[in-house]
Amino acid sequence: EVYFKNLSKQRQKEVMEKNGNNHKLRVCVATCNRADYSKLAPIMFGIKAEPQFFELDVVVLGSHLIDDYGNTYRMIEQDDFDIHTRLHTIVRGEDEAAMVESVGLALVKLPDVLNRLKPDIMIVHGDRFDALALATSAALMNIRILHIEGGEVSGTIDDSIRHAITKLAHYHVCCTRSAEQHLIAMCEDHDRILLAGCPSYDKLLSAKNKDYMSIISMWLGEDVKTRDYIVALQHPVTTDIKHSIKMFELTLDALISFNKRTLVLFPNVDAGDKEMVRVMRKKGIEHHPNFRAVKHVPFDQFIQLVAHAGCMIGNSSCGVREVGAFGTPVINLGTRQTGRETGENVLHVRDADTQDKILHALQLQFGKQYPCSKIYGDGNAVPRILKFLKSIDLKEPLQKKFCFPPVKDNISQDIDHILETQSALAVDLGGTNLRVAIVSMKGEIVKKYTQLNPKTYEDRLALILKMCVEAASEAVNVNCRILGVGISTGGRVNPREGIVLHSTKLIQEWSSVDLRTPISDALHLPVWVDNDGNCAALAERKFGHGKGIENFVTLITGTGIGGGIVHQHELIHGSSFCAAELGHIVVSLDGPECLCGSQGCIEAYASGIALQREAKKLHDDDLLLVEGMSMKEEEIVSAAHLIQAAKLGNTKAESILRTAGTALGLGVVNILHTVNPSLVILSGVLANHYVNAVKDVINRQALSSVKTVDVVVSNLADPALLGAASLVLDYTTRRIY
């Protein structure tokens, strides 16, 4: 770690020397509207905070300077930024021609500004027509361009504009791995792409705990409670203006019928925006007691409003991007955001062609709470961007180079640009220990933490949160991007809700426990929970012998006996989440008592606890120790002593192990006759001791049609942690709509 930090400092020093020891990078940030300023402001604050490296010039144009849209340039002044130039570039009009004329007007005015400023680099955000004018001017005037949020996919003309800016830009800052891959596929130079995350997330992830009730009261009224109001933000779709106006009309009708307090924001400056405002006034929205219609809400306050809303509705990118950080339900209407990566909090209504359809979506989503999602950022974007800016060598040729196929492998790491490894936080709740690990996409355990598992619920949950926070912080240092948290625990688990329904006797005070909500709220990450046996099966499916196998069973042989069943590549949970309780298959009607209260279960014969019980009986009768064995007086008798005694020729110990192996083998035969897998994987510390006995029982007792099944010992060192990680890595909340 120290080596890489020193290497990074040395590279920055070399770049400073190349650029001239006293030369500061002159950065021009041009902002066109309230939306792009929310992404650019964190970068501007970062640049301003390092005057030894940067000089900042701010250019304001577009809708910032229009009264109808709230004169939002004032919030830039309130943030204590000096505005170097104000350019009035919006041509009033209600059709597509007005947008074209606005681009033309900006192209006429910008050259004079850029000639005076002479920036080393211009930062351009997003996909608006104003941004296209900025990028075109800078490119033609040989000014380097850093494009924020390139490579993403959405609907409308914005998609084409975004990709056009990508081709003009020299450097790219993207928010997701998919966006990075899109940029590479567009032949952009991999060395000039930074996967940083969205800059607005740097503010979002630290915002939720601030005083929000006063903000809600100010914008919606003092009688409004959290989770009991709606935020609506809808823009015209410039490729189908008529349909988008009709959809907005239906949305307002549905909101009126739904009868909840609603904050409606005015749309962006686009062809069709005036018509949408007329629809609002026609329906009396500005004077309706349930509605508050506003031109602009400061970003700090806006994120508090959406964080505590019962729902957000519309077609703004904010709904599918930023709102996921809070788990607020979102209804995405129409095609404007088609192709965006979204979290599970987003419900898409692509054909929003009836009021009833939108109303039904409101009824489904309002008041829900989803896991927080970090698809678009982890709160560390700005430091990465500043580091990227410092690495730019102004003496390098300005002419862009395109990397035509074959492209570079995007899995390789570039420490200077912090291209992180996609990883998961894995938590294993055992009867004795509590373990947390950072696990990479390839199944490598990058970092592991182990503590004794506390006896009480409160202490256990507090320790889980503490260890997860510590691991998440360390992930940045070891170059890992955490996608979510996977938890493996004993007992019966409802994985849909993330709740431990009831646990084994090995873990006390662990019934009816909601694990997902507190951990997701604390870490702003999605959380998955499942039974430890199921997790072992998932680990084998992703990293072990089960990879590519359609039907297989995993049996864990440890303190207890558990397992998981994979059928047609899918894990089976059962109607009450009790499937694959393989340790409680009964193999004898009058066998020893099991911890579950029954008799004759596999676990009562073959588990570590069962072997320890038999070892104690032999020891109490002075029948355990044989020549070559010794025990200290205070040493606790364990299953390991029984196994050692059997290896040294203790016939009684051998008989107990033979009985245990037979019981496990009979259980496996029952499994073969029930689900007919093609592979049985034995996992856990006792697997090697049982594998031959299980094969012998199958040969003696199983039907001939299943005797050919493969029985193997797992080669995974930590199946519980790897299985918990695979919950995240296989089911991360990324859905392409």
UniProtKB/TrEMBL annotation:
<keyword id="KW-0511">Multifunctional enzyme</keyword>
<comment type="similarity">
    <text>In the N-terminal section; belongs to the UDP-N-acetylglucosamine 2-epimerase family.</text>
</comment>
<dbReference type="InterPro" id="IPR020004">
    <property type="entry name" value="UDP-GlcNAc_Epase"/>
</dbReference>
<keyword id="KW-0547">Nucleotide-binding</keyword>
<dbReference type="InterPro" id="IPR003331">
    <property type="entry name" value="UDP_GlcNAc_Epimerase_2_dom"/>
</dbReference>
<dbReference type="GO" id="GO:0008761">
    <property type="term" value="F:UDP-N-acetylglucosamine 2-epimerase activity"/>
</dbReference>
<dbReference type="InterPro" id="IPR043129">
    <property type="entry name" value="ATPase_NBD"/>
</dbReference>
<keyword id="KW-0808">Transferase</keyword>
<keyword id="KW-0597">Phosphoprotein</keyword>
<feature type="binding site">
    <location>
        <position position="601"/>
    </location>
    <ligand>
        <name>Zn(2+)</name>
    </ligand>
</feature>
<dbReference type="Pfam" id="PF02350">
    <property type="entry name" value="Epimerase_2"/>
</dbReference>
<feature type="binding site">
    <location>
        <position position="581"/>
    </location>
    <ligand>
        <name>an N-acyl-D-mannosamine</name>
    </ligand>
</feature>
<keyword id="KW-0418">Kinase</keyword>
<dbReference type="GO" id="GO:0046872">
    <property type="term" value="F:metal ion binding"/>
</dbReference>
<dbReference type="InterPro" id="IPR000600">
    <property type="entry name" value="ROK"/>
</dbReference>
<keyword id="KW-0067">ATP-binding</keyword>
<comment type="pathway">
    <text>Amino-sugar metabolism; N-acetylneuraminate biosynthesis.</text>
</comment>
<comment type="subunit">
    <text>Homodimer. Homotetramer. Homohexamer. The hexameric form exhibits both enzyme activities, whereas the dimeric form only catalyzes the phosphorylation of N-acyl-D-mannosamine.</text>
</comment>
<feature type="binding site">
    <location>
        <position position="492"/>
    </location>
    <ligand>
        <name>an N-acyl-D-mannosamine</name>
    </ligand>
</feature>
<keyword id="KW-0862">Zinc</keyword>
<dbReference type="GO" id="GO:0009384">
    <property type="term" value="F:N-acylmannosamine kinase activity"/>
</dbReference>
<dbReference type="GO" id="GO:0005524">
    <property type="term" value="F:ATP binding"/>
</dbReference>
<keyword id="KW-0378">Hydrolase</keyword>
<feature type="domain" description="UDP-N-acetylglucosamine 2-epimerase">
    <location>
        <begin position="53"/>
        <end position="390"/>
    </location>
</feature>
<feature type="binding site">
    <location>
        <position position="532"/>
    </location>
    <ligand>
        <name>an N-acyl-D-mannosamine</name>
    </ligand>
</feature>
<comment type="similarity">
    <text>In the C-terminal section; belongs to the ROK (NagC/XylR) family.</text>
</comment>
<dbReference type="GO" id="GO:0005829">
    <property type="term" value="C:cytosol"/>
</dbReference>
<protein>
    <recommendedName>
        <fullName>Bifunctional UDP-N-acetylglucosamine 2-epimerase/N-acetylmannosamine kinase</fullName>
        <ecNumber>2.7.1.60</ecNumber>
        <ecNumber>3.2.1.183</ecNumber>
    </recommendedName>
</protein>
<feature type="binding site">
    <location>
        <position position="504"/>
    </location>
    <ligand>
        <name>an N-acyl-D-mannosamine</name>
    </ligand>
</feature>
<feature type="binding site">
    <location>
        <position position="603"/>
    </location>
    <ligand>
        <name>an N-acyl-D-mannosamine</name>
    </ligand>
</feature>
<feature type="binding site">
    <location>
        <position position="584"/>
    </location>
    <ligand>
        <name>Zn(2+)</name>
    </ligand>
</feature>
<keyword id="KW-0021">Allosteric enzyme</keyword>
<dbReference type="GO" id="GO:0004553">
    <property type="term" value="F:hydrolase activity, hydrolyzing O-glycosyl compounds"/>
</dbReference>
<dbReference type="Pfam" id="PF00480">
    <property type="entry name" value="ROK"/>
</dbReference>
<keyword id="KW-0963">Cytoplasm</keyword>
<keyword id="KW-0479">Metal-binding</keyword>
<feature type="binding site">
    <location>
        <position position="594"/>
    </location>
    <ligand>
        <name>Zn(2+)</name>
    </ligand>
</feature>
<dbReference type="GO" id="GO:0006047">
    <property type="term" value="P:UDP-N-acetylglucosamine metabolic process"/>
</dbReference>
<feature type="active site">
    <location>
        <position position="532"/>
    </location>
</feature>
<feature type="binding site">
    <location>
        <position position="584"/>
    </location>
    <ligand>
        <name>an N-acyl-D-mannosamine</name>
    </ligand>
</feature>
<feature type="binding site">
    <location>
        <position position="596"/>
    </location>
    <ligand>
        <name>Zn(2+)</name>
    </ligand>
</feature>
